[in-house]
Amino acid sequence: MHRRKVFPNGGWTFCLAALTLISLMSIISYFALAQNPEPDRATLLIHSDQPKGIINPNIYGHFAEHLGRLIYEGLWVGEDSPIPNTRGLRNDVVGALKELRIPVLRWPGGCFADEYHWKDGIGLRNQRPKRPNASWGGVDTNAFGTHEFMDLCEMLGAEPYINGNLGSGSPQEMMEWIEYMTSDSDSTLATLRRQNGRDKPWKVPYFAVGNESWGCGGEMRPEHYADEYRRYAAFIKNHSGNRIQKLAVGPSDANYAWTEVLMAQAARYMQGLSLHYYTLPTGNWGRKGSATSFGEKEWHSTLVRTLRIEEFIQKHSAIMDKYDPQKRVGLMVDEWGTWYDAEPGKNLGALYQQNTLRDAVVAGINLNIFNNHSDRVRMANIAQMVNVLQAMVLTDREKMLLTPTYHVFRMYKVHQGATLIPLDLTAPEYALDNASVPSLSASASRDSNGILHLSIVNLNPNRAAEIAMKVAGSAAKNVSGEVLTAATMNAMNTFDSPKVIQPAPFSGYKIRNDQVIVSIPPKSVVVLEMR
Ligand code: AHR
Description:
Layout: H1 2-6, H2 11-35, E1 40-47, E2 61-63, E3 85-86, E4 89-90, H3 91-98, E5 104-107, E6 131-132, E7 139-140, H4 146-156, E8 159-164, H5 171-182, H6 188-195, E9 206-209, H7 222-233, E10 245-248, H8 256-266, E11 272-279, H9 296-323, E12 330-338, H10 357-372, E13 377-383, E14 393-396, E15 399-402, H11 404-412, E16 419-421, E17 423-426, E18 429-432, E19 435-438, E20 440-446, E21 452-458, E22 465-472, E23 479-484, E24 504-505, E25 509-512, E26 515-520, E27 524-530
Parallel strand pairs: 1-22, 2-5, 2-13, 5-8, 8-9, 9-10, 10-11, 11-12, 12-13
Antiparallel strand pairs: 1-17, 3-4, 6-7, 14-15, 16-20, 18-19, 20-21, 21-27, 22-26, 23-24, 23-27, 25-26
The structure holds alpha-L-arabinofuranose.
Alpha-L-arabinofuranose binds near residues 211 and 383.
């Protein structure tokens, strides 16, 4: 009776309504699943009972070139600027960078290093020569020179890494710069340094002979560079207790022939060989891809390309192992990061780009790879520190914002100087079109207080990952952490909304007997601390 009232046309009407209800429910659950699909299931075994070597803090190094608005405006505003500063260096930027505990800072280039003549940048600022910046455009006032750079390093607590000029300089110029900076004697150059305001010599632990000498640094063949390197390196002298590690120009990307020649002919004269690799979403220097306007296709291709650095490190390391099985020579990845097309209307030579959640994921993946290869990778310097390429900080006159990459460096600093802990990670692939990447990237370390730190990146923008994690040797009793994620792949901080993307406390874990079940959100970077 009741049924008839509701379905006056009998059984057929009832069936139709039931079918409609079922299809409605499947449509709803389809959309719910599409938005909230089942998480990827992964397992992670942390071998805390098999500790490896120390993660060199210098893997968290930075790079500051005379390029665009990095030095001038980004760091240096001059003592008379209305922007609050200490001896000409802006307080907001230096304050933010101090939080990263920057271990080492490379300067003055890049391509600019091979056109830089250090004597232009000392003495009274208003009498310093103005020179065209032949690499990147504009005129350099030389207001920021050796003393200003060393002051910055001291404010940051970072060790200086000076990149010498091989391309257009001379061994004598290089030798004199080192004497000027590091000698405590009463030589004319050490006396000149004192007259210019610095009594005590500085320590210069790292000095490189040229930059990209196969390209902007002189278009050399490896055989020629190896000989030049040996000649210049002979004039890098240690003064007054300073001990310099000499770094040679290494390859970029997959230029294995360069590494082979350098290691065969000059390994015994160097402590480090550089490697440069930039992540371009498209892999095409003519149309690299936008920093902010991209879909999942470019998200995925960016991650495919950034992961290639692991293959480059492995293959260059294998060549180095042949000539240096004791791993005495470090592989210094002294330029890495994302490189996008300049924003429409912006100065092409300034290499200014915005920074999104995608950059945070790229940074997390690269730092995990460097940690995991820290037996050979002894230094890495992201390009670059402020306002250029994958920057930590962006400025617009008196305004400053922290990028998603900054937050990753802040979260990962716990790995600096800690002991690498090996991992067994099994995770599904994240596939798109014909390519696929592992959906998770991770590295772990134990610090001197015995605390275990685990950094995990979820590359998949659509699916969370549920990781069943075990710590071999000791079960984790207390877990805490931070997560960096956002609603969209291209979320970014802007000068109007500088806090769109920033780390939040992480609570996505459950301790179950000897396991920790961790739920990592899609497209995120998580750093956990376990005791
Ligand atoms: O980081 C920008 C430039 O990229 C550097 O000056 C050069 O070394 C590299 O080609």
